[in-house]
Design goal:
Blueprint: E1 12-14, E2 17-19, E3 24-27, E4 31-36, E5 39-44, E6 69-71, E7 74-76, E8 81-82, E9 91-95, E10 98-102, E11 110-111, E12 123-124, E13 127-129, E14 132-134, E15 139-142, E16 145-153, E17 156-161, E18 174-175, E19 184-185, E20 193-195, E21 202-204, E22 208-209, E23 216-220, E24 226-230, E25 255-257, E26 260-262, E27 267-269, E28 277-279
């Protein structure tokens, strides 16, 4: 009987390179290829990563490596001990691609002043002051005195006076009332008269005087201010006589003519014509 034989599987040609049947290789782009029955079959490389913080694949590789750790974007070598970026005194270690972190165990206790840089949190001490106990950070006033503010800080009490506002009145007008912490300004006393700075004279309220001009009269007001008013002359005559210290001219005392004063019914020669005679007539 004639014998039968299985023909050998053909080779695979891929990008000009011959590959034996059953051969397996990796192409660029992490493609895994194999030669089967003269055909090249390729598929994406499947990576099995048995660690929690693998490092990126090295140059020319497709799968991440567990010979180190990648934590918060920073590559850590195998066995490296480090602290995370958020601090809190936590210690981390890189082992076989896995990162394990441990926080310190702090015994219970108290501290005088907690610091953010301390690894262990602490409970601030309470304050014992004048027979009372205050928690850390508590603010209180002394017994019966609201002018002093106290605060408990780590077992110690610090007291300070309540700040007072600035006053814009002189010292002799300031007043501290009973039960008050800060002084206040008194109301200025009512003026007893009008004081004139130019000559130093003080006039009582209601006083009337002339400041120098006979046609101007001033009066001292109740609030200490001075009110002045000028006098309007209503009487007129063609030849008035001006009396020193008097505001308005006097038309009943006589006549003023060419710089001379004549009494009523007095006759005198004219200064312009010696043949003329003049008489002062008050009307």
């Amino acid at each position: 009987a004639p014998s039968t034989s299985i023909p050998p599987s053909p080779r695979c040609w891929h990008r000009g390179i011959p590959w034996e049947p059953g051969a397996r290789w990796t192409e660029l782009g992490c493609q895994s290829c194999t030669c089967q029955g003269g055909q090249v079959l390729c598929e994406a490389v499947s990576c099995s990563v048995p660690c929690s913080h693998p490092l990126p694949a090295p140059a020319g590789g497709c799968c991440p490596t567990c010979t180190g750790c990648l934590h918060e974007g920073v590559a850590r070598a195998e066995g490296d001990v480090f602290s995370p970026s958020d601090g809190n005194c936590t210690i981390c270690v890189c082992l076989a691609g896995n990162v394990s972190c441990l926080s310190p165990e702090c015994p219970p206790g108290s501290c005088p002043s907690p610091s953010p840089a301390d690894c262990c949190s602490c409970t601030p001490e309470k304050c014992h002051f004048r027979g009372r106990t205050y928690a850390h950070g508590a603010r209180f006033s002394l017994d019966g005195e609201d002018c002093t503010t106290c605060v408990c800080q780590g077992g110690e009490v610090e007291c300070s006076f309540t700040p007072c506002p600035m006053l814009d009145c002189p010292q002799h007008q300031r007043h501290l009332g009973p039960g008050q912490c800060c002084s206040t300004c008194r109301d200025p006393p009512a003026p007893a008269g009008c004081f004139l700075d130019d000559n130093g004279v003080e006039f009582p309220v209601g006083q009337i005087w002339s400041p120098g001009d006979p046609c101007e009269l001033c009066i001292c007001q109740a609030d200490g201010s001075v009110s002045c008013q000028r006098t309007d002359c209503v009487e007129t005559c063609p030849y008035p006589i001006r009396i020193p210290g008097q505001c308005c001219p006097d038309c009943s005392a006589g006549c003023t003519y060419m710089g001379r004063t004549f009494s009523n019914n007095e006759t005198f020669p004219s200064a312009l014509d010696p043949c003329l005679s003049c008489i002062c007539l008050v009307r």
